[in-house]
Amino acid sequence: ILYIMDEEGPYAFQGNGVQPIGTPIADQRSDQVLDFSKKSTWSVRVDPLEELVYFFVTGSGDTGDRPRRALVYDIRTQTWSKWTYSWDIGDSVKLTYGSQRRLLMGTTNDAFYVCNDGLKDGTIDVSYSWKSGMFAWAESAQDSKRYIRVTFNPTANDASLNISTYDNHSSSPTAMNEWNGGDGVTVEEGSTKAIANLKLSQHEDGDEPGSKYLPWSGKLPFLRGRPTRWVTCEISGEQSEDRIIIYEIEIGGVK
Predict the structure, then answer these.
(1) Confidence of residue 221 (pLDDT cuts 50, 70, 90)
(2) Are 114 and 195 in contact (CB under 8 A)?
(3) What does the buried/exposed string (b/e) look like for 103-127 if buried means 16 or more CB atoms within 10 Å of the residue's CB?
(4) Do 104 and 115 meet the contact criterion of CB atoms below 8 Å apart?
């Protein structure tokens, strides 16, 4: 399969067939997001080991003339993610490293990095975030709980996960009530994020089971007037000494 990109978006060529694959990231192709004046520095590279396709691009407002971000296509799942870097990316090439075909990235800090090797960008912690689409609250006469549950692989070292929510069509996270469920999830009054402790040995009476629960409210009555009808959730954090692995995100009380 040949992967290419032009001003209309990314494509996958196989035999005589051409498949546009960029519909899920169509909002990232506008000139408000990308700086097309620097497109001569853009490139497309495939990581054969991870089965990822990197579409390196420059964003509007990015400093420097070379990419500091990539739209990354997962060949196996046919899904997209957005990656950013701490330095300008010169180019990437494949090479044999540790008896495997890997992608080597050259950057403007006079260093070369093997992609997807280790837990950090050089010495810098890796920031991550994921934001869902909007979910409609279920209307019910019965008691209905609204919550988010995150299932993960506990870490050996200190690590935390931030959980935020967005009401209706708001672009700003919702202020939360104070909360401490006693299982390593806490919220300070008025904060826009709950902090979940991911460390394996955080409890005195046993290891962390790898599941965190945050209630958004106790009961859900009929929705009338101008209540919150839609909700969006977001998780974020930093990867440092342990690989952060999220298995499942469950949202309760939605259709």
Answers:
(1) very low
(2) no
(3) bbbebeeeeebebeeeeebeeeebe
(4) yes
- Cα dihedral: 85, 87, 92, 95 (round 10): -90
Kindly report, residue by residue over 121-149, the tens digit of the pLDDT.
878 899 999 999 899 988 765 556 889 99
What is the greatest pairwise CA distance in the chain? 63
Distance between CA atoms of residues 73 and 15, nearest Å: 20
Number of Cβ within 10 Å of residue 154's Cβ equals: 18
Please name the residue that has the structure tokens 């399969």.
1
Distance CA(50)–CA(97), nearest Å, equals 14
- Contact predicate 199/155, CB 8 Å: yes
pLDDT per residue over 47-71, tens digit each? 988 999 999 999 988 888 899 999 9
What sign for the dihedral angle of Cα 117, 118, 121, 127?
Answer: positive
